[in-house]
Amino acid sequence: MTTKNPAIGTMKESSLHRSLKFEYSGWEGHTETLAGSYVCDGRTKKGELIEVQTGSFGPLKEKAKKLTIKNKLRIIHPIIAQKFIELYSVEGALLHKRKSPKKGSIWDLFNALIYAPELPLLKNLAIELAVVDVMEKRVDDGKGSWRRKGVSIADHAISARHGSVLLKSQKDYLKFIPFIKNEQFTVKEFGGKAGIGTDLARKTLYVLGKMGLVEKTGKQGRAFVYRRKPTALP
Length: 234
What we know:
Strand content: 35-45%
Structural class: alpha/beta
Number of helices: 5
Mean pLDDT: 92
Low-confidence stretches: 3-10
Helix content: 10-25%
Radius of gyration: 20 Å
Distance between the termini: 40 Å
Order of helices and strands: EHEEEHEEHEEEHHEE
Number of strands: 11
Shape: globular
């Protein structure tokens, strides 16, 4: 594994981001590599570009469109199944460790896609969900968010891997529609069947609609009614 320029794109990089960047670029690939006018997290031995995106996909919209004209691009998006939190003093002493009550799932993808809902339709683009447990290191330095009472987040590191989900084509996203042909449903019914909250269900249906996989068919009271788009059926 080689790095084209270790100074490019590595400022404030978390251990989580760095680990995935090196893993998916491969030992014979490169990290922090140029592709046209862009710097990518990596490039595999076979030439596939790698971008690790831990947050919203919005910032990748234009970059991905241009990169996929001539290249294959794989976006690696970590799904945090379980988070553990370690709190340290400024001097580096471990004060306590706990498990976060919040758990993630592959449905969290749609929180990231909401600002780039048509990104999965790009030719030559694949999205891979890397399901991981993460250790979040915090420091009680008084410089962090008021919500954390001044505690800063210093790093995120992978503590366990739970496999991955590869999404290469529009058809791969049909697994996110838990209804059969011609079955109609509301946002609330979708969320109930998928096991997710109403807000995330609404975001998911918005993205799937932009991808041409679901459509609105009318209203049930104040709630919109949806169905899997007939042209999207396998």
